[in-house]
Write a structure and sequence with these properties.
There is one protein chain. The protein is an all-alpha fold. It is about 65% helix and about 0% strand. It contains 8 helices and no strands. InterPro entries: Ankyrin_rpt (IPR002110), Ankyrin_rpt-contain_sf (IPR036770). Keywords: ANK repeat, Repeat. This is Ankyrin repeat-containing protein.
Length: about 130
């Protein structure tokens, strides 16, 4: 274990990469306990592997509904869509935005996720 800890200290990126791979594998093979454990130790649920795949991709592709629901309940989907360029001001056929729909449905956590991610995107684009 000492050698493993030493290796992780020397190369934290490899450890991050290993954690992301472990997360994607857990999502792929429907191991909700591992997904929850990895999230609890700080692995971002919207992490991407070297090929751009996320836990949501893996769970969805393999029909792992429990994991998809877990990811949705942890706002992963909202964040991924916004970071991918989804327009949060677009109107649906009822002339409502995503925030309007979330408010109607009482989904304050979704509204928070939208606002936080939009602010994150705006801050990364800001210049001083």
């Amino acid at each position: 274990m000492g050698a493993e800890a030493n290796r992780a200290e020397q190369n934290p990126t490899a450890t991050e990469s290993e954690n992301v791979e472990e997360l994607l594998e857990a999502a792929r093979y429907n191991d909700i306990d591992d997904v929850i454990r990895l999230a609890a130790v700080g692995v971002s649920l919207d992490s991407k592997d070297a090929e751009g795949r996320t836990a949501l991709h893996m769970a969805s592709a393999n029909g792992n509904v429990d994991i998809v629901n877990y990811l949705i309940s942890n706002k992963v989907v909202v964040k991924i869509l916004i970071l991918a360029g989804a327009d949060v001001s677009s109107l649906n056929r009822h002339e409502r935005t995503p925030v309007d729909e979330a408010a109607i449905g009482g989904k304050m956590d979704v509204i928070d996720a939208i606002n936080t991610t939009v602010a994150q995107v705006e801050l990364t684009r800001a210049s001083v």
